[in-house]
Request: fold
Amino acid sequence: MDFQPQMKSFLETGTPLPFFMAYPDYPLFGSNKERYGEKTDQDFEYLRRTYPAMLGKWQRRVEEILDKMDYDGSMIYDEFPDKMTLQNLSEAVARVLALEGKKDDPSEPADAGDSLEDAYLQGLAQVLVCNDVYRRRQKRKQEANGRITKCFGNRIE
Reply:
C-alpha cells in the first residue's frame, strides 16, 4: 500500500498520524515483511556463492539430505530440537561427506583418516546442518505468518 497520499492528507489537516503510518517500512506489515524475507534470501544466496568450491558442494549436499527431512512434524521444526538428534544427524552427514570425498579422490586410501580432519569435518557438518535447519525454520515461520495474516484479513498492502 502506498502511504504517501494518506500521509499527505494527515499533514495538510494537522491531525496526528496513526501509529502504523509513522513507520511504513517497519517489517511488521505484510508487503514489507515479504520484501525483507526476499532480501534475506538474496543475501544468503549471495554469501553462499562466495563459499570455497568444496564447501559450496557440501552445502548443496546438506540441503539435499535435509530436503528429505522437510515435512510437517519433522524434528527440524520442533520448537526445541533435541541436541543429540541434531548431533546424530550432523555425524551422519559428515560420514556421507567423507565417503563422497574419498570417492572424488581415489588416490587416498579408503582407511586413511586423520582424527583431527574427522573432527573438523564433523564440526563443519554440524554448522552446515544447523544453519540450514535455521534457514528452513525461519522460512516456515514467515510462510505461516503470511497465512495467518491473510486468514484474518489484517494484512496491510
